[in-house]
Amino acid sequence: MVVSGQGDMTGPIYHERQVKQLCALHALNNLFQERGFSKQELDQICYGLSPDVWINPHKSLLGLGNYDINVIMVALQTKGCEAIWFDKRRDPKCLCLDSIDGFILNVPTEYKLGFVLLPLKKRHWIALKKIQGAFYNLDSNLDSPQLIGKEDDLLTYLKDQIESKDKELFLVVSREVATSQEWLVKVNCNDFLDESGEKIFSTDSDEIRYIEDGLSTDIELDKKSQEDMDNDNVIVNDNTRKSPLLSNFFTS
């Protein structure tokens, strides 16, 4: 675990390097830019999620880490945050980046023994965060944080990532933002005028519309319908939520 020297004059960027199968732990700490969680704390979350089992399904049997999405969600909740699964049918341009604290990617990786590639697959957690005015990839497998760029660069990067069927994206937001859905871009219909100054939408002036990729401007989409579309989370237990589209293979 190291603190990277990258960054501008305001200071370095906190970046933990990969140890064992603890990428979920590293992703959380890199996201919050501090050593906010320990392996022992994540293990305790696992025991809390499944207290009466011989083999805990949320972590490695060998005690190496390999934590699943349920552990990450509960850990985030202890910090007053929520993880929101991003529907890959959307365009990332629908995201209100100012309301999002960071991102966690779940990606497939390959096993290597030295330079030999083994026919085994595993999952890996990666944190993305805006630091000192720019977005960085804080992947614990990297030697140092990787600069992504400004907002447009991030949106392009996210779109490229979620085009893969094997990758999943989670938004990390405050509990208040999760409840109000402020992580979605909202626009007032009065802001959209044609060249003659006429409103594009024939709606009431105070109507708020959520931007959806692939929707033409003459399609009515009220807030309730949008909320129904976004309500993909179901209760897994008293402490955590998980999308029904996600399976237990989301581990590190």
UniProtKB/TrEMBL annotation:
The keyword Ligase does not apply. Its main location: cytoplasm. Its EC number is 3.4.19.12. It comes from the Eukaryota. It is found in: Cytoplasm, Cytosol. Keywords: Cytoplasm, Hydrolase, Protease, Ubl conjugation pathway. InterPro entries: JOSD1/2 (IPR040053), Josephin (IPR006155). SMART domains: Josephin. It catalyses: Thiol-dependent hydrolysis of ester, thioester, amide, peptide and isopeptide bonds formed by the C-terminal Gly of ubiquitin (a 76-residue protein attached to proteins as an intracellular targeting signal). The keyword Cytoplasm applies. GO terms for biological process: protein deubiquitination; proteolysis. Residues 10-187 form the Josephin domain. Signal peptide: none annotated. It is an enzyme of class 3 (hydrolase). One of its GO terms (cellular component) is cytosol. One of its GO terms (molecular function) is cysteine-type deubiquitinase activity. The active site is at 23, 124, 139. PANTHER family: JOSEPHIN 1, 2 (PTHR13291), JOSEPHIN-LIKE PROTEIN (PTHR13291:SF0). Cleaves 'Lys-63'-linked poly-ubiquitin chains, and with lesser efficiency 'Lys-48'-linked poly-ubiquitin chains (in vitro). May act as a deubiquitinating enzyme. This is Josephin-2. It comes from Fopius arisanus. The lineage of its organism: Eukaryota, Metazoa, Ecdysozoa, Arthropoda, Hexapoda. The gene is CG3781.
